[in-house]
Amino acid sequence: MKIIRRYIYRELIAPFFFGVAAFTGIFIGTNLIFDLTDLYTRWGVDPLTLVQLFFLSLPEIIVLTFPMATLLGTIMAFNRLSSDSEITAMRSGGISIHSIVVPALVIGLLTSVVTIGINEYIVPQANYRHEQIVWKFKHGEKKPDTQYNLYLTPLDESNRRPDYILYTHQFEADEGTMDYVVIQEFEEGKPISLIEAESGRWFDNEWHFYNGVVYYMEAGQRLPALKFNEYRSVENIEQPSQMGKLGKRVEDMNIRELSEYISLKEKQGKIVYSEKVKWHQRFSIPLASFIFALLAAPLGIRPQRSGGSAGGLGLSIIVIFIYYTLMTVGDALGSQGTIAPWLGAWLQNIVILIAGLALLYKVSEAN
Fold first, then answer.
1. Which CATH architecture has domain 155-237?
2. pLDDT tens digits, one per residue of 247-302
3. Where exactly are the structural domains of the chain?
4. Which residues share a beta bridge with 197?
5. How many beta carbons lie within 10 A of that of residue 9, not counting itself?
6. Buried (b) or exposed (e) across 306-316, using 16+ Cβ within 10 A?
7. Is 138 helix (H, G, I), strand (E, B) or coil?
8. What are the C-alpha distances in Å from 186 to residues 96, 165, 195, 220, 233?
9. CA distance linking residue 148 with residue 51, whole number of Å
10. How far is Cα 150 from Cα 162, in angstroms, rounded to an integer?
11. CB contact at 8 A, 220 and 204
């Protein structure tokens, strides 16, 4: 049995890498190459930088191509084994369909784990670096980390009313500074004071504000109460590293950063359906490799009218089209809150999983 499984593993490897090359080439030829050409012709990006941008774009493409390659490779491998009657010989030797399919599932699962790792540790950094390089060529300077006109409105968890409202004209996450700050403080949902300051700075694990006035609120009036050179806010205002996430693209965040970003926006009472869908997709898209392997194995075992690479590629494209159509629909419904965000992210996987299990059962019964 171990010899048979090793043999199936070897049969799966070659078409898998063929699939990686084929689908990566499709992405490069239909999208990436045009983007790089536009950067060269419109912005004068030099060839060496274009090469760097090319390789920085590959991790995100690989995350998408690995599941596709698993689908194509599994269909091609099992289609060849079936066409040459090797599946029939294995079944005659007492080997069940489930045992024959196990190597494909193992490779699919390993590919999913590797893809999650790439998506977590490589893709965000590569996307961020790519964005910085393109920004510098388009604007002639490094992309600033400054956020302008930043608002924070966290809610009190006990009554879901504003805890405080903070506005700053300019926020520097790296330096931990604010320029022109207004803080409206609340108690039981009612305004009690207003702070206006020329600047703010984070040190000793708290915010310090400078050159301003504190107004206390009485019956809707704003009365000058205290001028200050330095004032420490009693509010538990987020630290700069947390606030800085509000200005970061979701594509540039890893899973932990995205979780913190969602938590920060939820504290402000913001709707985060779309962000939650993106968080779940960090797992659902890579795990498509395992789901595709489960579907592709029985598809490959079933007799096909068109064999070889062309037949496998055509069948793979049909399955991929269905998968990404379902993913687009799920993403739209989940991002709008029509269905739960987790369901919006996992809808396509659930449908393909059910189809794969049903087809595997049918093939097992037929053999």
1. Sandwich (2.60)
2. 778 888 889 889 988 988 887 778 899 999 999 999 999 999 999 999 999 988 87
3. 2-137+272-366, 155-237
4. 181, 212
5. 14
6. eeebebbbebb
7. helix
8. 68, 8, 12, 13, 13
9. 33
10. 16
11. no
